[in-house]
Design goal:
Number of strands: 0
Number of helices: 12
Order of helices and strands: HHHHHHHHHHHH
Structural class: mainly alpha
Shape: elongated
């Protein structure tokens, strides 16, 4: 059993290294992922921020959690794209002809998504600091924020894996992330849900992004989190488990 585990993790390390080399040889991927959320942050803080009433003195503090989720939703489209291209070029079949653990090819893409999105998140937080973002959070609160963002990234990445393995075209592999990017706009990410019409407010308050945003916002402000963190974790873990099961089934069917 230990030999099997060692074999699996060594193979996964090789697959992760391969995917990360592609990322570092094309850093424009990470930059592109970060540019759109940063542009949104600049737009809302310096153009719309003065007209938006959130009950806070520093709008960038209020806005940042939603921007981070948009960045992650934007970044996972590249996972679907890379998986689709590997399928089309027959690279998965080549790897499967070698003596490696079959699932490590998929796991390499998933872990690459986690690392590359983490880099994008750090870049956005650094820009937010320049724009005036400040947090009184202690180390444990920051670790909790990192954990929630990692779970959110993994959940969306496994969805991206399903799309990348099933898509019929490059556009189909990449475009699925658009609804995910739009979802934070119908949440408490940009404005309090109290200002929304009743129907929109009902949707906004009962979709996953709002609970995740509220949990992260409270953690960064060192305020009581309440039930938001448990609702956020339930959403992330639920989506992660379901997406993982379907992704592995799709992967086995496609590579059988």
């Amino acid at each position: 059993m230990e030999a099997i585990k060692k074999h699996f993790f060594s193979d996964m390390g090789v697959m992760l290294g391969r995917s990360m080399r592609h990322i570092f040889r094309s850093m424009d991927t990470i930059i592109t992922v970060a540019i759109m959320p940063i542009a949104l942050m600049l737009l809302f803080v310096y153009v719309f921020g003065g007209a938006i009433q959130t009950g806070t003195d520093n709008y960038v503090n209020y806005l940042l959690p939603g921007i981070l989720l948009i960045a992650i939703a934007n970044g996972i489209s590249y996972t679907a794209f890379r998986l689709f291209m590997d399928m089309q070029r027959g690279i998965l079949e080549r790897f499967h002809s070698m003596p490696i653990a079959r699932s490590t090819v998929l796991w390499g893409h998933v872990l690459t998504s986690l690392v590359s999105n983490a880099i994008s998140v750090v870049i956005i937080i650094l820009v937010a600091l320049i724009m005036g973002f400040r947090s009184s959070a202690e180390v444990l609160s920051w670790l909790a924020v990192a954990g929630i963002l990692a779970l959110f990234t993994l959940a969306l990445t496994w969805i991206a894996a399903i799309v990348g393995l099933s898509a019929k075209s490059v556009d189909g592999a990449s475009a699925f992330s658009y609804p995910l990017i739009f979802l934070p706009f119908i949440s408490s990410a940009f404005v309090p849900t109290e200002s929304m019409p009743s129907v929109v407010r009902a949707f906004a308050e009962n979709q996953p992004v709002t609970s995740i945003v509220e949990a992260i916002r409270s953690l960064l402000a060192e305020q009581p989190v309440g039930n938001d963190i448990w609702v956020a974790l339930a959403w992330c873990l639920g989506i992660l488990i379901v997406a993982y099961i379907f992704a592995m089934r799709t992967y086995k069917r496609k590579t059988a």
